[in-house]
Amino acid sequence: MLDYIDKNRDRFLNELLDLLRIPSVSADSKFKNDMLKAAEYVRDRILEAGADRAEIYETAGHPVVYGEKLIDPALPTVLIYGHYDVQPADPYELWDSPPFEPVIKNERIYARGSCDDKGQFYMHIKALETMLATNSLTCNVKIMIEGEEEIGSSNLGTFVKEYQEMLKCDTILISDTSIIANDVPSIETGLRGLTYVEVEVIGANRDLHSGVYGGGVANPINVLCEMIASLKDKNGHITIPGFYDKVEELTPDQRTALNAAPFDLEEYKNELQIGDVLGEEGYTTIERTSVRPTLDVNGIWGGYIGEGAKTVLPSKANAKISMRLVPNQNDDEICELFTKHFESIAPASVKVKVVPHHGGLPYVTPTDSVEYKAAEMAMEESFGKKPIPTRGGGSIPIVALFERELGCKSILMGFGLDIDNLHSPNESYGIFNYYKGIETIPLFFKHYAELKK
Ligand code: BES
Ligand code: MN
Ligand code: MN
């Protein structure tokens, strides 16, 4: 297999670059046609890799690509999941090269989606091709690549319910997460959940002269800032009543294990060029970014932001607020707690509106399962080092739903790095990581089939 990968090295990369040229931004309707183009490209490459079939399935939103190679009903079945949609590339001016014209620099592929998740799910298509071309496939393979992960996968739940029988599998393999470093392999054993809301604070019925009315009526921007500031106390605890009620606290042993992962606070600060870290009192940076819930403003706007100065009391202010959730917290419940609390802290001088966006449940996977062992063995074989289990801070909303609807656990065998700039300008993916993934995935299949015997 290594020989086959080596012989096809350039083509494997060029095919990914072609996929990266398609601006499949799910959030922005002006790219709707590119979403379809990306789906067609993925379908065609799955067929070319040797699948029995691959098709595009329409949904109420962007289409899902599904393909399969079923070789023997007696063998275990692995479902591969990934997403062909990407985050918006804005702000374009901060990119050193155009986001949808991939370039290779310093052994890295620069483009929106290079790591999240095109570069990572494409490794699976090339691994499938490699296994089929070298007669080494040891499992049945199903592959589902969706187009709405970055906007919350809200139509995928319906798809999974409708096609439950078609998607039936023994385990799910996903490459959409990170490792600690190229010489410190790791496997994420958890994901945080998410609740995302948009709030509006409304003052007077129109914008007002800030001299004539200023000091006498509420300024919605000032009020919104005060309300947001009050959502955390001076120790970084979230003040929404009931917010922590269901949060699972780690045992001292679990905390020790979690904090044993290599982490250098000075290096972390230097890399981000920050004077200090900031977070919830009593928890380490590793804990704050994985097993503790958060509340963050993702965007805030209102009033005059054009050139020069305008003396005005705006009539409205808005913010987008997200909360990352940890095991036992429920996204709908937290959304309700937030809404009730936010409405209750608004002074009578303003009205507030809270509109929920998407959400998702947190997820954890055990490290004593056959599929985790298979991933561990695969990574140990390809990296030459046993991977460390870590808890991820990001969210992949469908993973908890897979568990509920398909009754199986997902293995988060990702190959990205924290420096890949996911969702940010100059996103990139290491060439090393791309090929390492293509090498490691067939080893997962090999070990999984052996362990399942
Ligand atoms: N691949 C990421 C999630 C991720 C990144 C997990 C790095 C672990 C390490 C995924 O594409 C993502 O960005 N998810 C969103 C979910 C949301 C839009 C519903 C997230 O985490 O913000
Ligand atoms: Mn992703
Ligand atoms: Mn993402």
Structure overview:
- With 453 residues, the chain is α+β, with helices and mostly antiparallel strands.
- The chain contains 14 helices and 19 strands.
- A hairpin with a 6-residue loop joins strand 1 and strand 2.
- The longest helix is centred in the last third of the chain and has 22 residues, at 431-452.
- The two termini are 23 Å apart.
- The mean pLDDT is 97.
- Bound molecules: ligand BES and manganese (II) ion (MN) (2 copies).
- Residues 83, 116-117, 149, 176 line the site of one manganese (II) ion.
How are the SSEs placed, and which strands pair?
Blueprint: H1 2-7, H2 9-20, H3 32-49, E1 53-57, E2 64-69, E3 77-83, E4 103-105, E5 108-110, H4 118-133, E6 140-146, H5 156-162, H6 164-167, E7 171-174, E8 186-188, E9 190-191, E10 193-202, E11 208-209, H7 220-229, H8 252-259, H9 265-272, H10 285-288, E12 294-302, E13 312-313, E14 316-325, H11 331-344, E15 351-360, E16 363-364, H12 370-383, E17 388-390, H13 398-406, E18 410-412, E19 428-430, H14 431-452
Parallel strand pairs: 3-6, 3-7, 7-18, 8-17
Antiparallel strand pairs: 1-2, 2-6, 4-5, 5-19, 9-16, 10-14, 10-15, 11-13, 12-14
Helix pairs in contact: 2-4, 3-4, 4-14, 5-13, 12-14
Bound molecules: ligand BES and manganese (II) ion (2 copies).
